[in-house]
Amino acid sequence: MTDSDQEELSPDDWNYRHDERIDPSKTESIASVLSIGLGIVLSFWLTSIGNPVLALLVLATGFGLPLFLTEGGRVMLKDARRNYNEEKKNSLSQRQEQQSGTSKQVCSECGWQNPRQNQYCHDCGGQLSS
After folding, report:
1. Which of 6, 56, 59, 81 is the most buried (most CB within 10 A)?
2. pLDDT in tens, 48-58
3. Does a structural domain hold residue 70?
4. Contacts of 42 (CB under 8 A, 6+ apart)
5. 32 vs 25: CA distance, rounded Å
C-alpha cells in the first residue's frame, strides 16, 4: 500500500468502522439472549443425564443473570421494588384507616377502644353496648 492509497481512504471506508462505539443496549440484549439460551441448553443436557435439580438451578440462573448484570434488568428490578413498597404502604394506610374508622367501639366504663365485634372490654372486662 502506497502513501497515495492511504490518502484515498475516508472515514466512510470499512477500515474506519472499527472505531464506532457499540450501543450498550444491543450488547445487553445479546448477553441476555445468550445467557437464557445457554441456560436452556444446559438444563436440557442436565435433565437428560439425570440431574433435574441442577438443571432447574442452571435454568433459573440463565434467566436471573440478565436481571442483575444488565442496566435494563437493574432498572426493572428497581421499579418492581418501588412498586412493591408503594403497594405495601398503601395497604398499610388502608388497614389503619379501617381500624381507626367505625370499626371501634368505646367502653363506657374505662374509655378503651375495642374492636366492633367484642362483647366485653379488653381493658376492664365491662360489657360493651352494641
Report:
1. 59
2. 898 888 888 88
3. yes
4. 55, 58, 59, 62
5. 10
